[in-house]
Amino acid sequence: MLAGAGVIALIVFNLRHSPEWRHFDWHELLATAVTAEPGLLFIALITVFVSHLVRAVRWQLLMMPVKHGSLRILFKGQILGFSSIYMIGRTGEVVRPAYIARKEEVSMSSMMAVWLLERILDEICLVLLFSLALMALPIEMTTRRGSAVLVTLRHAGDMLLVLAIIIVALVVVFRWKTEFCASMVVKALVFFPERFRHGARRFLNSFSDGLRAVQGPRGLFGAIVLTGLLWGVNGSTFWLVLHSLRGTLGGLPWLAAALVMFCASLGLVVQFPGIGGGYQVAIILALTEVFSIQAAVATGAAILIWLLISLPIMAVGLGILVHEGITLRKLEALAEQGEAAVESGG
């Protein structure tokens, strides 16, 4: 909760002291939040949890060749994993596969393989949604910075697609030629200690076993369908929040919300020209520069989207921690154990 409040305070501080936002109307921000339609926000809240349920079903399909996982455990794993990112930082990424591996009594390498496959599917789906939005929406930039932002988005989308294709190709080659690829990697690590190179080889061999275990054709096809459904639900969350604020935001089509969602995802890794990066900042930038929404309205929408997506998941995640007797220290230890298991080929 304190971390969330700190993030919001930092956004407000940056906006207030940035020359691009000197005409920012704080009264309009408050009015935007107050006039939100509660019914649409409630439906959006439901879609947030539906998206995690879809993730759990997708995980269940991908791990089917290893074990028929419990949907209850997998759903808890999704909630706990994403809330861990807010609570302990990026190391929380490992909590999902580590928690599921421990609860289901399967190898960590197979769950890391599931994690990698779902990340690849997510990247490809996001880029395809972004491309569809650019083709279908009548977007015309009227400012130099808006044009620069759109160029950045196009380049980032192209880079993500190329990266996803490269990763898929590497995964396929690695699965077919594990011993050759492992030998090449170990040779490239010739300047590292023998213990480190031995651990790297064990990890690569174990990870290859994990990939072989989870890549059932029926599971992959089902995972592709569920990935489309997942990002349809996620895009609907954005669309519902935007429509709950009525006005100009209420007139944006679903694909516009999907484009904003793509920008939000990019904001975690990409620096936009003239303003930087960040989840909320990227939403604000997309709404103001691409769709010409007023700064105060866009900021209200960005903060509301972030609160709706993060705080309920954090609250349920904390509830899971309390119910299972897991402290934040133990959560960090779980993430460290997961990383250690991967390194040792567990």
Explained architecture:
This protein is mainly α and 346 residues long. The protein has one domain. It has helices spanning 2-17, 26-34, 38-62, 71-88, 95-104, 108-136, 144-176, 178-188, 194-214, 217-244, 247-250, 254-266, 279-290, 295-323, 328-343. The protein is globular and about 60 Å long. It starts with a helix and ends with a helix.
The largest pleated sheet is described as: none
The helix count comes to 15
Number of strands: 0
Overall pLDDT metric = 78
What structural class do the secondary elements suggest?
Answer: mainly alpha
> What is the helical fraction, as a range of percent?
over 70%
Tell me what portion of residues adopts beta-strand conformation: under 5%
Query: N-to-C SSE series?
Result: HHHHHHHHHHHHHHH
Measured distance between first and last alpha carbons: 34 Å
- The stretches of 5 or more residues where confidence is low (pLDDT under 50) are 18-23, 271-277
Total separate domains: 1
Instruction: State Rg.
Output: 21 Å
Broad shape: globular
